[in-house]
Design a protein that fits this description.
Largest sheet: 3 strands, antiparallel
Mean pLDDT: 80
Strand content: 5-15%
Shape: globular
Order of helices and strands: HHEEHHEHHHHHH
Distance between the termini: 62 Å
Number of domains: 1
Helix content: 40-55%
Oligomer: single chain
Length: 212
């Protein structure tokens, strides 16, 4: 709900970005890496490139306590297949594969499916928030989103056609479509001028209509 409220501040009733709120949230949430809600990346699992999300675990967090408090996530927590390291060579302990999240949601009984849905919806809410923050060619936000790991390769993997080795839930795909629109399509310099009135008149027309 909190993320949804922040998202509502960044977009007006006509679907356009509200720059003052976009700027404020970009500075608040993206300039300081310790305030990232989640991070994103790609890694190979058995020769298949997969998109994932992860958390940098603070020293005071006990991994075992977190996984015990979130038993559904414990079942899909990466155990070494996608191990990544930051600049200080400290391992990212909390890595979750979007393919595995999708499979757990699709192929489990109702209770587990409902539990996984909450995590899935949280990730989508974060992506939707970033989409509205970057809406309308907000280039500073778009540049900083790469620090979160929302690169072209990560987004392309999520939006790619499903295969036997890589299945991504349609809720992820819908949120990432909005993100791709904000980061890549609306940020294209040509797109912004498509609806501009053509004021390039040929000389004959000016000569006939001009009283000068």
């Amino acid at each position: 709900m909190y993320i949804g409220i922040l998202k509502a501040f960044c977009i007006d009733r006509n679907g356009r970005g509200v720059y003052p709120y976009q700027k404020f949230l970009t500075e608040l949430m993206l300039e300081d890496q310790s305030k990232f809600l989640v991070k994103f990346g790609t890694a190979k699992v058995e020769e298949t490139l997969r998109p994932y999300i992860y958390f940098e675990r603070p020293a005071e967090w006990k991994l075992s306590d977190f996984l015990n408090d979130n038993p559904l996530l414990r079942e899909i927590h990466d155990t070494g297949y996608m191990t990544q390291h930051n600049n200080q060579k400290a391992q990212y302990d909390l890595i979750f594969d979007l393919h595995s999240l999708t499979k757990k949601y699709y192929f489990n009984d109702d209770s587990k499916g409902r539990g996984i849905k909450l995590y899935l919806e949280y990730i989508c809410a974060v992506v939707d928030l970033y989409s509205t923050m970057s809406l309308g060619s907000h280039t500073k936000c778009i540049d900083l989103l790469e620090n979160v790991g929302l690169s072209e390769s990560h987004i392309s993997l999520v939006l790619h056609k499903d295969t036997k080795k890589l299945i991504i839930h349609e809720k992820f795909k819908a949120s990432y479509c909005f993100l791709a629109r904000s980061m890549f399509i609306e940020n294209d310099a040509i797109v912004n001028h498509i609806n501009d009135k053509n004021r390039c008149y040929v000389w004959d027309r000016i000569k006939k209509n001009s009283s000068v």
